[in-house]
Amino acid sequence: MNVLVLAAHPDDEVLGCGGTMARLAAEGCRVSVAILGQGAAARFAPGSPAAAAEVEALQERSRQAARILGAAEVRHFGLPDNRFDSLVLLDVVRLLEALGDELMPEVVYAQHGGDLNVDHAVTFRAALTAFRPLPGSAVQALYAYEVASSTEWAFAQFDPAFRPDTFVNVTGFLDLKLKALAAYEGEMRAFPHPRSERAVRAQAELRGAAVGVPAAEALATVWRRR
User: Is the pTM of this model over 0.85?
Assistant: First the structure.
Protein backbone atom coordinates (compact mmCIF):
# COMPACT_ATOMS: atom_id res chain seq x y z
CA MET A 1 0.00 0.00 0.00
CA ASN A 2 1.19 3.50 -0.83
CA VAL A 3 0.78 5.96 2.04
CA LEU A 4 1.25 9.73 1.93
CA VAL A 5 1.80 11.79 5.08
CA LEU A 6 1.33 15.54 4.66
CA ALA A 7 2.88 18.04 7.07
CA ALA A 8 3.05 21.80 7.10
CA HIS A 9 6.37 21.84 8.99
CA PRO A 10 9.23 19.46 9.75
CA ASP A 11 8.41 17.46 12.94
CA ASP A 12 4.62 17.74 12.51
CA GLU A 13 4.61 14.40 10.72
CA VAL A 14 6.37 12.64 13.61
CA LEU A 15 4.37 14.36 16.36
CA GLY A 16 1.10 13.51 14.64
CA CYS A 17 1.60 10.02 13.28
CA GLY A 18 5.22 8.94 13.72
CA GLY A 19 4.18 5.70 15.38
CA THR A 20 1.65 5.00 12.65
CA MET A 21 4.28 5.67 10.00
CA ALA A 22 6.70 3.24 11.64
CA ARG A 23 4.02 0.57 11.97
CA LEU A 24 2.91 0.92 8.34
CA ALA A 25 6.51 0.78 7.11
CA ALA A 26 7.14 -2.34 9.21
CA GLU A 27 4.04 -3.92 7.66
CA GLY A 28 5.46 -3.38 4.17
CA CYS A 29 3.74 -0.17 3.15
CA ARG A 30 5.58 2.47 1.16
CA VAL A 31 5.38 5.63 3.26
CA SER A 32 6.12 8.97 1.59
CA VAL A 33 6.30 12.26 3.48
CA ALA A 34 5.56 15.68 1.98
CA ILE A 35 6.57 18.70 4.07
CA LEU A 36 5.04 21.79 2.55
CA GLY A 37 6.61 24.62 4.57
CA GLN A 38 10.07 25.80 5.51
CA GLY A 39 9.39 25.27 9.20
CA ALA A 40 11.59 27.85 10.91
CA ALA A 41 12.22 30.78 8.58
CA ALA A 42 9.70 32.96 10.45
CA ARG A 43 12.09 33.04 13.40
CA PHE A 44 14.67 34.95 11.34
CA ALA A 45 14.82 37.97 9.05
CA PRO A 46 13.38 37.06 5.63
CA GLY A 47 16.05 35.88 3.24
CA SER A 48 18.80 35.98 5.86
CA PRO A 49 21.65 33.45 5.84
CA ALA A 50 20.49 32.30 9.29
CA ALA A 51 17.03 31.50 7.94
CA ALA A 52 18.43 29.56 4.98
CA ALA A 53 20.80 27.61 7.24
CA GLU A 54 18.01 26.66 9.65
CA VAL A 55 15.71 25.54 6.84
CA GLU A 56 18.48 23.36 5.41
CA ALA A 57 19.19 21.90 8.86
CA LEU A 58 15.52 21.10 9.41
CA GLN A 59 15.31 19.34 6.06
CA GLU A 60 18.25 17.13 6.99
CA ARG A 61 16.66 16.36 10.37
CA SER A 62 13.44 15.38 8.61
CA ARG A 63 15.38 12.93 6.46
CA GLN A 64 17.00 11.46 9.58
CA ALA A 65 13.60 11.08 11.22
CA ALA A 66 12.22 9.41 8.10
CA ARG A 67 15.05 6.88 8.07
CA ILE A 68 14.38 6.04 11.72
CA LEU A 69 10.69 5.45 11.02
CA GLY A 70 11.27 3.54 7.80
CA ALA A 71 9.69 6.08 5.45
CA ALA A 72 10.73 5.71 1.83
CA GLU A 73 11.18 9.40 1.03
CA VAL A 74 10.69 12.97 2.19
CA ARG A 75 9.91 15.86 -0.15
CA HIS A 76 10.13 19.54 0.76
CA PHE A 77 8.23 22.31 -0.98
CA GLY A 78 9.53 25.43 0.80
CA LEU A 79 6.27 27.31 1.32
CA PRO A 80 6.64 30.41 3.54
CA ASP A 81 6.69 29.59 7.24
CA ASN A 82 3.57 30.66 9.17
CA ARG A 83 2.32 32.47 6.06
CA PHE A 84 0.31 29.82 4.22
CA ASP A 85 -2.72 32.10 4.52
CA SER A 86 -0.93 34.55 2.20
CA LEU A 87 -0.92 31.94 -0.58
CA VAL A 88 -3.57 31.29 -3.19
CA LEU A 89 -5.25 28.11 -1.95
CA LEU A 90 -5.61 26.79 -5.49
CA ASP A 91 -1.82 26.83 -5.88
CA VAL A 92 -1.41 24.62 -2.80
CA VAL A 93 -4.17 22.32 -4.03
CA ARG A 94 -2.49 21.94 -7.42
CA LEU A 95 0.82 21.15 -5.73
CA LEU A 96 -0.86 18.32 -3.81
CA GLU A 97 -2.80 17.11 -6.84
CA ALA A 98 0.44 16.80 -8.82
CA LEU A 99 2.05 14.93 -5.94
CA GLY A 100 -0.94 12.59 -5.74
CA ASP A 101 -0.84 11.92 -9.47
CA GLU A 102 2.81 10.92 -9.15
CA LEU A 103 2.72 8.87 -5.94
CA MET A 104 -0.80 7.41 -6.27
CA PRO A 105 -1.35 7.08 -2.50
CA GLU A 106 -4.13 4.84 -1.27
CA VAL A 107 -4.23 6.43 2.18
CA VAL A 108 -3.43 10.05 3.04
CA TYR A 109 -2.73 11.49 6.49
CA ALA A 110 -2.99 15.26 6.94
CA GLN A 111 -3.04 17.68 9.84
CA HIS A 112 -6.37 18.40 11.43
CA GLY A 113 -8.10 21.55 10.23
CA GLY A 114 -9.31 22.89 13.60
CA ASP A 115 -5.79 23.74 14.62
CA LEU A 116 -4.13 26.76 16.23
CA ASN A 117 -1.52 27.02 13.48
CA VAL A 118 -2.68 28.67 10.26
CA ASP A 119 -0.27 26.61 8.12
CA HIS A 120 -1.81 23.42 9.50
CA ALA A 121 -5.30 24.65 8.68
CA VAL A 122 -4.37 25.53 5.08
CA THR A 123 -2.64 22.17 4.63
CA PHE A 124 -5.80 20.41 5.74
CA ARG A 125 -8.05 22.52 3.53
CA ALA A 126 -5.85 21.91 0.49
CA ALA A 127 -5.73 18.17 1.22
CA LEU A 128 -9.54 18.03 1.37
CA THR A 129 -9.73 19.42 -2.15
CA ALA A 130 -6.75 17.63 -3.68
CA PHE A 131 -7.74 14.23 -2.31
CA ARG A 132 -11.49 14.38 -2.59
CA PRO A 133 -13.08 10.99 -3.43
CA LEU A 134 -13.32 11.32 -7.20
CA PRO A 135 -14.35 8.25 -9.23
CA GLY A 136 -11.25 6.33 -10.23
CA SER A 137 -9.02 7.97 -7.64
CA ALA A 138 -6.41 5.75 -6.01
CA VAL A 139 -7.09 7.34 -2.61
CA GLN A 140 -9.28 5.16 -0.43
CA ALA A 141 -9.14 7.12 2.83
CA LEU A 142 -8.15 10.49 4.24
CA TYR A 143 -7.34 10.84 7.94
CA ALA A 144 -6.46 13.86 10.07
CA TYR A 145 -3.93 13.71 12.90
CA GLU A 146 -3.36 15.90 15.94
CA VAL A 147 -0.15 17.85 16.58
CA ALA A 148 1.03 18.45 20.13
CA SER A 149 1.16 22.16 21.07
CA SER A 150 -1.16 23.09 18.18
CA THR A 151 -4.29 20.95 18.25
CA GLU A 152 -4.94 21.01 21.99
CA TRP A 153 -4.04 24.71 22.29
CA ALA A 154 -6.86 25.58 19.91
CA PHE A 155 -9.16 24.61 22.82
CA ALA A 156 -11.82 23.52 20.30
CA GLN A 157 -12.41 27.16 19.31
CA PHE A 158 -11.90 26.51 15.59
CA ASP A 159 -14.23 24.32 13.58
CA PRO A 160 -14.05 21.46 13.22
CA ALA A 161 -12.87 20.45 16.69
CA PHE A 162 -10.63 17.38 16.76
CA ARG A 163 -12.79 14.34 17.51
CA PRO A 164 -10.80 11.16 17.02
CA ASP A 165 -12.57 8.02 15.89
CA THR A 166 -9.61 5.85 14.91
CA PHE A 167 -6.85 4.72 17.27
CA VAL A 168 -3.72 3.10 15.90
CA ASN A 169 -1.95 0.76 18.31
CA VAL A 170 1.68 1.98 18.31
CA THR A 171 2.79 0.12 21.43
CA GLY A 172 5.74 -1.46 19.66
CA PHE A 173 6.66 1.73 17.81
CA LEU A 174 6.49 4.49 20.42
CA ASP A 175 10.21 4.36 21.14
CA LEU A 176 10.93 4.77 17.41
CA LYS A 177 8.64 7.80 17.34
CA LEU A 178 10.50 9.35 20.27
CA LYS A 179 13.84 8.58 18.63
CA ALA A 180 12.66 10.29 15.44
CA LEU A 181 11.55 13.31 17.44
CA ALA A 182 14.98 13.44 19.09
CA ALA A 183 16.44 13.87 15.58
CA TYR A 184 14.66 17.23 15.52
CA GLU A 185 17.03 18.79 18.03
CA GLY A 186 15.95 22.30 18.91
CA GLU A 187 12.26 21.62 18.19
CA MET A 188 11.51 19.64 21.34
CA ARG A 189 10.94 21.36 24.67
CA ALA A 190 11.22 20.63 28.39
CA PHE A 191 8.26 19.18 30.28
CA PRO A 192 5.50 20.28 30.89
CA HIS A 193 5.52 21.65 27.33
CA PRO A 194 3.27 19.43 25.14
CA ARG A 195 6.16 19.00 22.71
CA SER A 196 8.40 17.30 25.27
CA GLU A 197 9.34 13.63 25.28
CA ARG A 198 7.50 13.05 28.54
CA ALA A 199 4.32 14.74 27.30
CA VAL A 200 4.39 12.94 23.94
CA ARG A 201 4.74 9.61 25.73
CA ALA A 202 1.93 10.54 28.13
CA GLN A 203 -0.34 11.50 25.23
CA ALA A 204 0.30 8.16 23.52
CA GLU A 205 -0.45 6.32 26.75
CA LEU A 206 -3.65 8.32 27.28
CA ARG A 207 -4.83 7.66 23.72
CA GLY A 208 -3.95 4.00 24.20
CA ALA A 209 -5.83 3.76 27.49
CA ALA A 210 -8.95 4.99 25.70
CA VAL A 211 -8.99 1.80 23.63
CA GLY A 212 -7.27 -0.65 25.98
CA VAL A 213 -3.72 -0.73 24.61
CA PRO A 214 -0.47 0.62 26.13
CA ALA A 215 0.08 3.32 23.46
CA ALA A 216 -1.87 4.69 20.50
CA GLU A 217 -2.12 7.60 18.08
CA ALA A 218 -5.51 9.20 17.54
CA LEU A 219 -6.90 10.05 14.11
CA ALA A 220 -10.09 11.61 12.83
CA THR A 221 -11.57 10.01 9.73
CA VAL A 222 -12.32 12.65 7.11
CA TRP A 223 -13.66 10.14 4.59
CA ARG A 224 -13.17 6.49 3.76
CA ARG A 225 -14.45 4.21 1.04
CA ARG A 226 -16.31 1.21 2.47
Answer: yes
